[in-house]
Design a protein that fits this description.
261 residues, alpha/beta, five-stranded parallel sheet, two-stranded parallel ribbon, 10 helices, 42% helix, binds adenosine-5'-diphosphate, binds cytidine-5'-diphosphate, binds magnesium ion, dCMP kinase activity, UMP kinase activity, EC 2.7.4.14
């Protein structure tokens, strides 16, 4: 559905990220990886680049129970992004008893990370079949291996990386009260998940901090308080101002343009 075209120009600075090198078109039926295949175009040949911009991608990071899913719901209401929860996609495989279902269940019970290829392929399927141009990818990348696999298979970089920073004590309290019948919401698995978060997710957080893409949110407080920190991050992006689902209660509600498509 997207097409990546690189303009071959000596004027292009190295600091121009893939966003400024990326010009995408819709094209249903194309595989994401293929559709991102880089073409080198010589501007002197007079090929004019397509006008559509790359899809807007946000990664949502944070420990278990830090409030990622809850805040994603608020972001969807206000800015109309499409929410893809990596955990929900994996749990769907378990529910549908697919060929990877049993393996995924065993890993989730142990708080371990599912092989990146499996998770990225599930995300890829959702991206390809969606008509949306703006995505919240929640609970991903959980590891450097996840991050690298996304870059390799999807060939896209996030525009924004949110990190919900929450003390362990608070995360434990929230998870043990979550009450969604999840096999991993128990103290034994939670302890393992916290260790895995520190060991494997921290390097990803550091990576995006060094790239200048990380927005750290203090995840303690009411859901509203926390969303007040999230709002200005998204409202600064022009492409999010055309919103499909305007929440009338949102402080931005009146300034957003409703789009019924
Ligand atoms: N700011 C908050 N204060 C208290 N509880 C919260 C807050 N945000 C979310 N919760 C609750 O904590 C639990 C975990 O939140 P969730 O959004 O599922 O976190 P995550 O997706 O990061 O694991 C849920 O029961 C949710 O209702
Ligand atoms: N990128 C991911 C995301 C989740 N998972 C697995 O799914 C579990 C639940 O993830 P989740 O994102 O739904 O969990 P929360 O942080 O929302 O509590 C994780 O503990 C992992 O076992 C994974 O392996 N890889
Ligand atoms: Mg969640």
């Amino acid at each position: 559905m997207w097409r990546r075209v690189a303009l071959f120009s000596p004027m292009m600075k190295k600091s121009s990220s893939s966003r400024s090198l990326t010009l995408n078109q819709k094209g249903f039926g194309l595989k994401v990886g293929e559709s991102f295949a880089t073409e080198i175009i010589n501007p002197e040949e007079g090929v004019s680049p397509p006008k559509e911009k790359a899809p807007f991608i946000t990664f949502v990071l944070g420990g278990p129970g830090s409030g990622k899913g809850t805040q994603c719901e608020r972001i969807v209401e206000t800015f109309g992004l499409t929410h893809l929860s990596a955990g929900d996609l994996l749990r769907r495989e378990i529910a549908f008893n697919t060929k990877n279902g049993a393996m995924i269940l065993n890993l989730i019970k142990e708080g371990k990370i599912v092989p990146s290829e499996v998770t990225v392929k599930l995300i890829q399927k959702e991206l390809e079949s969606s008509d949306s141009r703006k995505f919240l990818i929640d609970g991903f990348p959980r590891t450097e291996e996840n991050r690298v696999a996304f870059e390799r298979i999807i060939r896209a970089d996030p525009d924004v990386v949110l990190f919900f920073d929450c003390p362990e004590e608070e995360m434990v309290k929230r998870v043990l009260n979550r009450n969604q019948g999840r096999v991993d919401d128990n103290i034994t698995t939670m302890k393992k998940r916290l260790k895995i978060f520190e060991a494997l997710n921290r390097p990803v957080i550091d990576y995006y901090e060094n790239k200048g893409k990380l927005y750290t949110i203090n995840a303690v407080g009411t859901v509203d308080d926390i969303f007040q920190q999230v709002l200005p991050i998204f409202s600064s992006f022009e492409q999010l101002k055309e919103c499909r689902h305007v929440n009338p209660k949102s402080p931005l509600g009146s300034s957003l343009v409703e789009n019924s498509s």
